[in-house]
Amino acid sequence: MIAIIDYDMGNLRSLENALGRLGAAYTVTSDPDEIRRSDKVILPGVGHAGRAMDNLERHGLPSVIRALRQPVLGICVGMQVLCRDSEEAPGKPCLGIFDAHVRQFAPEPGIKVPHMGWNTLGNLEGRLFRDFPAPQPYVYFVHSYYAGLCPDTVATCRYGGTLFSAALKYEQFYGTQFHPEKSGHIGARILQNFLAL
Amino acid sequence: MLAKRIIPCLDVQDGTVVKGTRFVDLQEVGDAVALGRRYALEGADELVYLDISATREGRGTFAALVGQVADAVDIPFTVGGGIRSLDDASRLLDAGADKVTLNSAAIARPDLVGEIAAKYGRQFVVVAIDAARDPSGIWRATTHGGTRAAGRELFSWAVEAQERGAGEILFTSMDHDGTGAGYPCDVYAALADCLSIPLIASGGAGSIEDIAAVLTEGRADAALAASIFHYGRYTIREVKRRLADLDIPIRL
After folding, report:
1. Within 13 A of A187's CA, how many CA atoms are on the CB side?
2. Known catalytic residue: B111?
3. Of these residues, B45, B88, B130, B177, which one is catalytic?
4. Which CATH number describes the domain made up of B5-245?
5. Residue B79, beta-bridge partner list
6. What single-letter DSSP state applies at residue B122?
7. Residue range B156-188, pLDDT digits in tens
8. Contact check, Cβ <8 Å, A182/B195
9. Nearest to A74 by CA among A159, A186, A154
């Protein structure tokens, strides 16, 4: 059973649909016991990183998530809150799994923020990207903040002059800045690889 | 590199796609879900579904359709037509839409843009502007499918919409829409320079070269098209291959 953590950070329907298409059994929950008992955990999230941390705290989840031993996948803001801290939430520590700071894209001529659309991944490492059809696949991004490069980086993406972490991994924790549930067959492969861990 | 997006637009009336004669060989003609899935498999980067139903029953059918699209399609999709309130937007988000597009309602009540963006984020809100050049040469927004002049000047309204929380601007020239004569690339370029959010071009494409022009000279981030795909002149794959051959960054 996969636990999708529901902490009032956006619509979970696309993720549920993507898991459904892969035939995975999932439950949508904010219950600590149900999360601890599941085989795998997905932490989605769209919106503001500070609000995401507040909502996790309100549900009593930060210590629960940090203590998980099964594979965990954070998506978008769900990945960002697994980092050390975020410029979107000044002075507020995040979950600190990944050794990365989350920063806002600096203004650059001709570079639009949010970074929205299909961009290529590079420097792919590890099991999330196993059996990939292309070395530089396109995936779908929507974000205004990014995690910098760090030892946990397992995929990179370039936007304007910024090379950032498109995916992170530390022990059994994974994170993607892009939305695998919206990234067509490439995204489905990534989710399938996570399910196969 | 961030790819330029190619976005087919499906007009839906009472649950059925009203343009879409291209796939006459398929049983799924008119089926909005099947057509969307077909476009996604052909390489569409996003989909836009516009509800053109005039009745309450039609609107109800559309909300149900959005749920079915969300189940079937694994790329982002935007929905619009008849969104007048935060509640309308919430219902479509709950049904699984990734973005909503606001047009006349945003001009009638600009606060709506900020209300939806504050609740669901800027990335959820596309402000669509239909504009035409007035006799003095000023581009002015129109509403209700181009039938009413809204008085708002295009550039100032686009910038205001951005400041109020729009995540993208979708600009259609009513002087070019439906002509197949190409886009006003100079206007797009000037608009792109005013905005820090992505700009989507719509209306006027008659050829792949027109799309290429608005994505390069026009500096648009995406091109939305209906007829060119529905009436079978080109497949999405053909368009994207040709654009890639012209060195435009495209997801193939």
Report:
1. 26
2. no
3. B130
4. 3.20.20.70
5. B49, B100
6. G
7. 999 999 999 999 999 999 888 878 889 999 999
8. no
9. A154
Does A116 sit within 8 Å of B167, measured CB to CB? yes
Give yes or no for a cis peptide into A109 (omega within 30° of 0): no
* Mean of per-residue pLDDT scores for chain A: 95
Superfamily of domain A2-195 in the CATH hierarchy: Class I glutamine amidotransferase (GATase) domain (3.40.50.880)
Known catalytic residue at B98: no
Burial of A100 (0-12, 13-18, 19+ CB in 10 A): buried
pLDDT digits (tens, 9 = 90+) for A106-136: 988 888 988 999 999 999 999 999 988 787 8
Q: Which residues of A touch B (CB under 8 A)?
A: 10-11, 13-14, 17-18, 20-21, 46-48, 107, 110, 112-120, 138, 140, 142, 144, 158-159, 179, 181-185, 187-188
Q: Give the whole-angstrom CA distance, residue A168 versus residue A151.
A: 9
pLDDT of residue B232: 67
Question: What is the distance in angstroms between the Cα of B136 and the nearest Cα belonging to chain A?
Answer: 30
A105: which DSSP letter? P
Closest Cα in chain B, distance from residue A189 (Å): 12
CB contact under 8 A, A142 and B197: no
Positive/negative CA dihedral, A183, A188, A189, A193: positive
Whether pLDDT at B19 is above 70: no
Nearest chain A alpha carbon to B5: A117
Domain boundaries, chain B: 5-245
pLDDT interval class at B22 (50, 70, 90):
very low
Neighbours of A151 (CB within 10 A): 9
Catalytic amino acids of A?
76, 179, 181
Confidence grade of residue B200 (pLDDT, cut at 50, 70, 90): very high
